Amino acid sequence: MAIHPILSALRRHKTGTILIALQIALTLAIVCNALFIISARLEQMERPTGLDEHNLLMVATMHTGIDSNTDAGKAALDASIKADLTALRQLPDVADAYETNSLPLSGITWGLGLRRKPSGSYDSHTTYFHADEHTLATLGLRIVAGRNFRSDEIGEDDNFGILQPAVIIVSKHLADNLFPRGDALGKQVYFTDAIAPSTIIGIIGRMQTGSRRTSTDSRTWNSTLVPMRLVSPSHYYVVRTRPDRLAAAMQSVPAALYAQDPQRVIPDGSGGDEVGVRSFAQIRAEAYQGDRTLAILMGVISIILLVVTGAGIAGLSSFWVGQRRRQIGVRRALGATSHDIACYFLIENALISTAGIIVGIVLSYEFNRWLMGQFELARLSSGYVLDGVALLFLLSQGAALAPALRAARIAPVEAIRSS
Amino acid sequence: MFKYYLQLGLRSLRRNPVLTALMVIAIGFGVASSMTTYTVLRALSGDPIPWKSDKLFFPQIDAWGPNPHQHGTEPADAMTYTDAVLLMRDHRAHLQSALYPIAPTVYSGNRTQKLRSAPGQAVYSEFFPMLNVPFLHGGGWTTADDEQHAMVVVISKSLNQRLFGGANSVGESIQLDSRSYRVSGVLDDWHPQPKFYDLATTDAFGPADQVFLPFTTATDAQLATKSGFLCIKLPGPGFAAMLNSSCVWIGYIVELDTQSQLRAYRSYMDNYAHDQQASGRFGWAPNNRLRDLPAWLDFEQVVPPQTKISFVVALCLLLVCMINTVGLLLAKFLRRSSEIGVRRALGASRVAIAAQFGVEAGMIGLTGGVLGLMLAWLGVQLMRGSLSRQIGVLVHIDLLVLWQTLLLAVVATVLAALYPIWRAMHVRLSLQLKED
Known about the structure:
The complex is a heterodimer of chains A (419) and B (436). Chain A is an alpha+beta fold.
């Protein structure tokens, strides 16, 4: 079928044509960026932390009545932490436990620089976690090279002063960052301001930092375990429960801690504060709350957009069919088949859609540029634009199909009937 | 006349219910998504102290110099203890206070109650008058109390309820950690959102503070900050070494009422940094900032970019819905060209035609607005469920949003109707009559 008569017909209802094309263009620009944002958020949310996240919980606790600024106070605090750990590990619901400053995705990040030489600039940044010989088993982390901490290597850290443990365990990502040739095991590194080196005795596969920033930078995987109890009034216990005992342990763990020391604080979330006892599933949900909300919102808006645009095209197309009943009748009377008539309207729609899509592709990239200026987002990849183009073209043709078929059913006698 | 147009409009709307429904639904969804995202944006971007936000300033003093953690030449948003105390001593603003967040344990008389830590702030006496903090009983402490490191405390209404059953507790004492403090005042309800005074180190939307101690007393008691603590060089062991370190962990607010006070304070800050440079403490030229509250809220990214993006995308959706409505109204109005022709021939002016179709568009807008209101209510409920607890409680629909939603729907529809109405006004009457 010749395109020329369609074009000259389109010229006669310019406004409607422009409106549909514009609508398709805007819808394409928003939908493919929304799809891109949704998939980026989902990808972010589905990243494994490296932990075995089932049956894991974290308890925030604060010791009171101990002045941790004196040596005697520190000793009392350390003894009470050790007693807590012994009590926790003996609970029937508990498989293993350790004390720490933070957990992946918890939003708590304690970071330092790391150097390969005693002085000079940093070679890498790292987030560190207080750990002991139970940490790997509790978190379900696997050593890929070297060994775990021994119980006699665990020291104390009062959270003041310089950090320089004799031995450390690092994530594979950090090891490769510091020693790109893959020979990190046994090497010595220095923390910020440290005089004494720390030897890398073990490398674990993957461990996310505590950061909740939706960031794509490589710091997210630079984790270090330091063999130290955090001797500070405020700290966390991380507990691996026995299979299917998570719900029970959420009750029995704080109860056991209160039994050890009734004069402690475990926040119950009453004053709008964070709840003290949280499963890892809760921590994960909290960490990705913003991402999830954004993804849902973008999804809902995209669906509404597609429906509205589809309905709009269907509405205008059927108006055009109604407007041209007599012309269609004349064409039918002159020998055009009903197939020819349906094709006419579908091709007309295809032409408008194509124009809209071309403008839409340009708008998509412009919109993506604006988004990149607003928050951390990669450049829109052409796959999403192609998906969006296909989606909109099919939607547009689908919306025009019913009016086109109705046009095809118009009888030749319409030619002589007055409208 | 208006009533007649209403009747005409109703009849026309009923004539093609599918087209009418399409427009109403499009406007409804467009308005609902805009208002839902706007409600969240409004909750997060509110001015927490509107009568004074242009008089409150947040000084930043670069105590680190050029360093690899820096974004451009921006100094850290928090201060070192050294700078905060020196600035307090110079006391160059009308009112000022250094502050940092604390979380002491509150001991209640009731031994069976589990202990709780109370979120709070270590502040100077001028904090209360500067931020117009409302008191139920008593008041803040005096400048002399600041200087004498007095053992006084201001507590919140909720803590007063828990400890004293809501009675006037001024003069009573409470135990925080291992020390006892005399209550000098009980606050009335006070929970500014965002918590603008504590943005340098803490998230913008957190629980209300329950205890306020003199800054000098809190550092005596070796109360550590419960929030952000950033160093480029690690402090030595002990609390005193921490105070003397170059780590930043203290917030600072000043009130400057006039432009000349503002200018004077800026030059004071520069002189201060020059002096520090001359004394050898700073090895770099003065690099200070003095932002007012709106600029400070923006700088601290109180409104997450996701919220802004959601709002913009929702506005784009409304735009598409409006374009959609332009097309559909055009179809609807021009389909009645013959009717317009007859009315014009019988003496109706163009203005009358415009009024008739304007009323019709307004009706679509109003119906769309009602639908939008219901959808927006649903949307806000969903948003509250999916936002964090601290932010979720701030998001709500009030009477203002209700009116804005209806207004937005009508305005959007009438705007969309302008071109179709113009076309309807200019239908050539002779042509229409001839064709029929």
